[in-house]
Write a structure and sequence with these properties.
By secondary structure, this protein is an alpha/beta fold. The chain has 9 helices and 7 strands; from the N terminus they run H-H-H-H-E-E-E-E-H-E-H-H-E-H-H-E. It is about 30% helix and about 20% strand. Helix 5 links the parallel strand 4 and strand 5. It starts with 5 loop residues before the first helix and ends in a 35-residue tail after the last strand.
Length: about 280
């Protein structure tokens, strides 16, 4: 047997440096289970950037939820630990989690197949579930199914036409799972809602800061964020769509009853008979 040193069998030019190999492994897309990716998205909201995004979304929802009334409010979101409906006046509010071991949901169910009767929820809140769902059309149809006529649908999503969307497009193939979602433009979501007989009342944008996971930088950019929010600029990192379920008025139409006049048939008329005038 001939001994061959490792440097001869694998020359340095054919082997990638250790540092480059480690960087390549870090940038590799996450191959975990859907449950692990879902929890990674929830953990991202606990970080510096996620907390600032969540604060901007709460500010948008606080302008809508206090004016919506009803009996039941449902929230579907990527984080089961986040409650975004605290400012709502509705008494019965619940959260549906995707997995059974979720921490904090009121119940567990797949958002694409909701175990809820049709026309039973007054307000449905979708928090970034459309971007990270394998069947966004089915999920939206299910949400539309459970909303009562003239009920409300609130959709929170990431705006692709923003600095946040640019970073997501640049780092979609690697990095954190939050950048791997399918960013849906508000106009596209509005087209889907129109097919489901929903009328969009308003679209608002928030989080006009830089998408940097660094708390001191985000704090210094707070004045710019407040000014952009005051001017209602449409280039915010997140958007809120408020849609209302339309119900076509069903007016009973009475059948038109035509009075049919009886038509006389060809009835032979009686001929007068000659009376006998003979006097006996």
């Amino acid at each position: 047997m001939i001994y061959c040193p490792d440097d001869i069998a694998n020359p340095p030019s054919a082997r990638a440096p250790v540092r480059k190999r480690l960087i390549r492994m870090e940038n590799r897309p996450s191959t975990g289970t859907p449950e692990q990716r879902w929890h990674a998205l929830a953990d991202w909201l606990d970080g510096d950037l996620g907390a600032h995004v969540l604060a901007a979304e709460r500010a948008l929802l606080e302008t809508k939820l206090p004016g919506l009334y009803g009996f039941h409010l449902m929230q579907l979101g990527i984080s089961d630990r986040v409650r975004l409906y605290d400012s709502s006046m509705i008494r019965h509010k619940f959260t549906l989690g995707r997995f059974a071991d979720a921490r904090g949901p009121s119940a567990c169910a797949e958002p694409e197949h909701l175990p809820i009767e049709p026309d039973s929820v007054d307000v449905a809140l979708l928090h970034h579930v459309l971007e990270y769902s394998a069947q966004p059309h089915q999920l939206l149809r299910e949400a539309a199914r459970v909303v009562v006529p003239h009920g409300h649908l609130l959709i929170v999503g990431f705006n692709p036409w923003s600095l946040f969307g640019l970073r997501a497009a640049a780092t979609r193939r690697f990095g954190h799972p939050v950048w791997g979602g399918a960013t849906l433009a508000p106009r596209r979501v509005k087209d889907w809602l129109a097919l489901l007989d929903f009328a969009v009342d308003d679209v608002q944008c928030g989080f006009h800061s830089l998408p940097l996971d660094h708390a001191p930088t985000l704090a210094r950019l707070a004045p710019i964020e407040r000014a952009a929010t005051r001017w209602s600029l449409p280039c915010g990192g997140v958007y809120l769509i408020h849609a209302r379920k339309q119900l076509s008025p069903l007016t009973p139409v009475r059948p038109l009853l035509r009075r049919v006049r009886p038509r006389l048939g060809s009835v032979p008329l009686a001929t007068p008979s000659a009376r006998d005038t003979t006097i006996h």
